[in-house]
Structure prediction request, 727 residues.
Amino acid sequence: MRLLLLVYILLSVSLNGITQHNAHAVSATRQPFMVRQGNKIVYHLYVTDTVVNYTGKKSNAVAINGSIPAPTLYFTEGDTAEIQVHNLMHMETSIHWHGLILPNEQDGVPYLTTAPIHKLSTHVFRFPIVQHGTYWYHSHTMLQEQSGMYGAIVIQPKKKITEAEEVVLLSDWINENPHQVERSLHFATDWYAIKKGATQNYIQAIREKKFGTKVINEWKRMMAMDVSDVYYDALFTNGKVDDMHARYKPGDKVRLRIINGSSSTYFWIRFAGGKMSVVANDGAEVVPVEVDRLIIGVSETYDVVVTIPDAGSYELLSTAEDRTRSTSLWLGEGEKKYAPVLPRLKYFEGMKMMNGMMNMDGTMNDMGMKMSLQQMDMNTVMYPEIVDSNENIVTLNYAMLRAPAKTTLPDGPVRELKFELTGNMNRYVWTLDNKTISESDKILIKQGENIRIILTNNSMMRHPMHLHGHFFRTLNGQGEYAPLKTVLDIMPMETDTIEFHASEKYGDWYFHCHILYHMMSGMGRIFSYENTPANPQIPDPIKALRKVYRDDRRFYLGAQIGVESNGSDGEIMLANTRWMFQNEWRLGLTPEKGYENEFHIGRLIGRNQWFMPYIGFDWRYRKHTEMEKNIFGQVNTKDQRGVICFGFQYTLPMLLRFDTRVDMKGNVRMQIGREDIPVSSRLRMNLMWNTDKEYTTGFRYILSKYVSVSSHYDSDMGWGAGITITY
Prediction:
């Protein structure tokens, strides 16, 4: 009988896929989503990766309780939250409670503050609700946030808001696996620019009389101008391209709790029914200010109040900053009233502006304009609705925000920190002071200190910097009434100052860019309270910290492989933030055409990473009877050669790659070339010449992200045509 009972238990566990972790088990029978027990609210969240996306197909998604976005969590200030997260997946996950003030071990950053939620296990979060406002939650594990793991949090004040309200959770969606997106960004593919129609190629430059602008851009070693990195297949409002709420009538006021839960998309917000009254930002109340539009940075929240003016259905239009797509919320019933559509960006005007700000050494120059707090949007030159219109459009900026009560910090010692936001678009490396998180030490702070942080953005991208577990004051000219925030969007060339009181007793608190792909490449720091006691959720802190650091140390594989009628040539690369492994080859079809292979291990130096010294091995063979010499008079030895070599690569103006090396026999070779000259939107030209008197030139026409038709001439292998695989 005991044997039968044991078999039954084992079969039950096996069939339900249950494993134990921290004394919790994933329940085969789901509990009610929410249960109130006095002032304690218990939520059950079930995480799964068997999800159907908006197209009706299974996808690379992660969902909570079967929906994207996850269900909204509702609390009242003074409640106690108990949130049981049941991980039904066969991989780790985590949840960070964005903007909430809570004990450090409940913050939800895996391996830093909180234990990861292991596969097929349950983790219980418990913390008091000490604030009110609009917040959200999301996975802090790898790229799960991009895959759909995010949801809204609404916390009512003790005296509840009685006006009508709607959650407006904005997000971005791509059908491609997010890990492929991340890998592609690190190899500077312009496939997403092709999808957007934003390559700024030479034919387009000539057609728009911007040829000189394009040449200067590449002379300064810059890529094409863009305001975002990824092309998205859809943008969502509450998980839908169009969300409808027909119950509102003329004269109704509606509080819209707008959350930017995207991974990398900024949204322009405009309402068809007139002005919007901004009443809160990042959960903290502000003195109401009326605007025609606002831009909401990645991970920010805004509460705005709108009025339904007349009969009809009025659009709240949320448009991606790059204007490729939009998503809508419709309020009211009847004839649709559309918000103004944002026209296409004038990319070459932006390129011209950036040319003037970029120095030849890769640093940026604000030209004495002393920009801050979004008050001078350098991208305005690209906005036709501003440049080509006499309409007086009131756009929100941070200097317009004012707290309703004094926000001055308590008395205490003041410590000032300065950070330069730095980056490298060509290799997609994002840093503070040219160091990733793994390359920098934790910043030790003491309870009771007042920390002032001066942030200067010396990159071409916006960066929404988020501080975990604390509100900070944004010093915006409002004196004692500076607004409180948890996220600060810092535009290119801006210098902004924030300050916060080190009010917590212990713990490590993350400070990072909230563009997901920037954070994963290492853009952030860790503030750590001195004398922090051991965290029971992190039993081996040294090993755990290695896992945190591993994110920005990962290697990515890239390749360009040509298969043509005259043979094959190509390059495979394995690279991370600072190191690169390269393998290049040319393979002919006959012994006379021969083959050659070069392997390099290089270290990328400097903020721009234009310089890479390397050590390598060169191996080649060709059946040849004539003695060949390079331009220095040295014997070329193409017949058979296997040598160790030392050299360096350097990125020259016009994005040309210069490579010089000497091998162990004393032979010197210099080479110059480029692979990706954008002739048209999809046509790319390549060329190469070296002092061994070898040269190539060719073209490839891009059919898809990975496949091109190509043709080229090689001085050793002759003409060929075929396909090129780009990975």
About this structure: Residues 556-726 form a domain with the Porin fold (CATH 2.40.160).
